[in-house]
Structures are given as structure tokens and as C-alpha cells.
What we know:
heterodimer; A: alpha+beta; 2 domains; five-stranded antiparallel β-sheet; four-stranded antiparallel β-sheet; 1 helix; 9 strands; 42% strand; B: mainly beta; Immunoglobulin-like; Jelly Rolls; six-stranded antiparallel β-sheet; 48% strand; flat
Amino acid sequence: MIILVFSIAGAVLYSYSTDVFRSSWSSFLLETNRRGERAQERLSVIAIWWDNGDQFNLTILNYGKIELSIDAVYIDGNWAPVSEGRGTVVVRRGKIQVKFTSPVPIQDGQIYEINAVSARGSRNFVSWKA
Amino acid sequence: MSLGKLSHDKRAAGSIIGAVFLVLILLSGFTFYTLIVNVANDYTVRLQDMQELDSRKYKENIEFVSVSFNQDMLNLTVRNMGPYLARLIWLGIFDETANTQDYYEIDFQVNPFETVTNIGNENIPSFEGEKRTIQLVTELGNTFGYSYPPGEEESEYDFVDTEGGPPTIGSHSFFEAQRSGPDGVCDTLLEGNMQWVSPTDYEDPGDEWLTETNAFDEDIGTAATNDIPGRDSWSSYLVLSHSAVNCSGIRYFVGREDTFIDQVEIDAYNSTWVNVYSGAGIWDEWANVSFTETSVTMIRFRFFNTHPALPQRRTAYVYEADLLEASPHYELDLEVQWKEADFDEANEWLCIYIGAADSEDLRVDAWNGTAWVNVFADLETGWNSADVSFCLVSPNFRIRFRDSVKTGDVVQSSWGIDATLLHVWTAGG
């Protein structure tokens, strides 16, 4: 009887501990991978095209170690609706064109801060003079 | 007896089973720990790898030597002025008239200080003689521009003009050294000791003092004043306060209308008022008073008018008073500026040559017209160059050198700045 009790208790405890280890390991691995991937991302806005109205076309270079995709663009902190290029995978050393409409009126000669953000949360700020 | 032996055997077997499971659990835990350490190490390696990439990026510098056409094919000659191999991966051709931006894939490697020619792409249509902007994109994400057709290039090396305004924390050894070179002659920036702490508030319990805040405005040209009646009378107290400071002394700069004011009393407050100075005073110059280290929240001053006639008022002045923190606390915040910077060129780079670095990071911020923007997080020995076109927007261009450890820095750091200049140019004139 004692052997049975010890066997069952040990099995339950062992099963519980492996479950705890496994779930901790999974969440740790997931989080570390997410952080690692984000750390390996690099993007740079290399050209800005403007139609003298409210249409923009950013050329964004992926110079990081992994592929990326663009998720959002902001002008002076205002979210800009992206019409083309959002979510498209950009390979290493590749570039993508991201078209969007400016959420703020653009005045010639003024300086604006454009912020391109990847799906993993990496970003690239550029100051651009209209 | 046999029952006892059987029970003992069962207990032993139970213990063995328990021990086996315990070992299994420990093994699982150890495996888990090992996996975590491996993954964490891998993450650290990735981070270091990317930091190395960032460091290389900021040092990359490609210069256009010439742009020509050979049998309608674009032919660029460029020179790598950076310390690392540069890999060119995209060539951009911008036509501002047609408002187009076309990119062509290229793959050229340029070794440090090497000049490479025949850079181009056979698919680029000829634009010989037409106006274009040519852009080279490197594998590290840098871009380098050139205006075609080439004209007379305006390239200017503009050394910093003057020391800047307050706050001036720390000191220059020889500012002029920044205005030439690099030649081995450095302006050593030395952290200042911020042990002297100004009061932040006051009390005037007798309501006799005027312009009390002048006693802690960091200006010995202005003072808190009190017209003290004659006939051997003391002024009321001027109380100056600060959040608790671990204090081992004070310094004061006081004045008087004439010698009828001939006594000063200074007290410090730590749950009770304690007199730290009583005497004839030192007038119109800084004077120090030391005392045993204690926590101080207030100090107070009063002055004595010995004139025998009551209406003969005499004025006492408290120009400045500071508390002395017991431990040293070093900081650096020094501004330098250009007064007539060329701010409308296509390329505008801030270049600083460090002759001697310190273990504490030295950062540089630039004023963009509304706020300070960080340009260098840590200046390294040798040339440090960064694009400042985003904040060089007027002839008056200001930068500041700041230390990185802002609290509890008990080590006085110094950095040797050999040259500070703006390199501005517009390729193609």
C-alpha cells in the first residue's frame, strides 16, 4: 500500500513539475524568440516621395538579419492609412514601397517626423522637409 | 517480527521510489535550466551582433569621386572613407522634374580607403547631361547622395565658434583646441563638482526681507535685502530651504550698506535650529562655513545694526547661499555653438575627433530649434560623424556635451576633444 501511495504521489508530482517546466519553457522560448527577432530587425526609410498633396510613397530598406514587414506609418505621431505595402514581407537587403495618405496637412518647407513601424515593433524615425 | 520487517522493507521501497521521482524532477529542472541558459546566451549573441552592425553603420562613409557615362552606361567612381568594408546594394536615380524615384540592384564591395570605378547597372537608361540625384544604398542601411550633372562642389569644414550658454557644468581646459585639428592638442572637458546645492525656497517670518529669491538665483549681482532699524537691533531671519541634504557646510556671499552692520548669525536646521556661525562676517566675497555632517533642510541668516539711533536703518544683502553636499557629485553639461553655420546644404555632418576618451560615456545632443536631440550616445576615440541635417536648420547651431552618469557619480571624468566641426557640402554644386 505504501509503495502504491509513494508511486502515485511521485508520478503526480513528477507530472506536475514537468508540466510547469514545459509551460514555463514554452513561454520563455516564445518571448525570447520574439525579442531576439525584434533585435535583429533593422529598417531604414531611404527615400520619400510626395505628390505635393497628401500622398506619400516611402521606400524602406530592410538591412537587418531577418525578413520584416511594415505594419504602420505615422506622421508627427498621427497614424497614416497605408494603401500599399502593409504586411508585405521584405527579405534581407530588400526594399519595399509603402504608399499612404498623410493624416495631417503638409506645408511646403515645414519639417515633419515620419515613423515607419514593423510588425514586430521596430521603428525608424526620419525628419523630412516638405 | 515478520510484520515489522515487511513494513520496514516497504518503507525502504517507498523511499527509493520517492528518491527516484525526486531525481527525475531535479533532472527535468536541470534540463529546463540548461535550455534557458542556452537560449539566453543565443539571445545575447544576437544582441551583440546587432550592436556591432550599428557601430559599423555609423562609421560608414562613401564619397562620390566622379559620375560619367561610357557608351550611354552610367559609370560611378566612389571612395570608401570609412574604416570597414562597404557593400553597395542599391542605386537610386531620382528625377525631381518627373518626380520619379527608381532603384536598381547592384552588388559592389569597396574596401576601406579604396576607390572603385565602373559602379552602375546596365538597365539604367542614360540621362547624360540631365539633372538627377543619384543615391547609393549600402548593406548597412546608409544612403549617400550626389547631384548630377556635377558642378562646382561646395564643401566646407566649419569649426565650432564659441562656448555656449548656461547651464555650464564642468569646464574646458582650452576651448580653442576644438577649433582646429585634429592635431593632438585637446580641449579637456572636466566634470564639475555639483556638491554646492542652491536652496529652492524661502521663508520670511518677520516679513522684512525683499526680493528673497535673489538669494538663490545663482547670480551674485542680485540680492535679498533688509533695511534694519538702528539702536542695536537684529534683523528678522531670512530662511532658505531645500529638501533634506546630507550637508557638511554652507557658503554665503553677503553684503552691507556700511560698517554699522557688523554681525552675522547663521543657523542650520535639523529638527532644531543649530547655530553654525556667529561673528563679524565676511563681506562682498564668498565665505565658507563648515560643520559636522548632518541632514539639513533649512538655513537662516540675520544681521545686526549697531547704529545708536533708531531711524538710522542700514541695509543688509544676501546675494547667494549654497549648501555643501557631504559627498562629491560630478556632472558635465557644456554647450558649444556655431554662429554662422551653413545650414542649407544637401549634406550636413557633425564631426568630432576624440583624442582621449573616458570609461564614462560622453554623449552629444544638438538643438533642433525646439528641443535637444541626441546625436551621439557615446563618443569614441577618433572621428565620430553623424548626419545633423535634421536639426541644422539655422545659422545658430548649438550642441552640448553631457556625461551619462547623472546620479551618484563620485568619479571625476574627463574627455579630450581634439576637433569639433561641421562638414557641409552639396555634391554637384
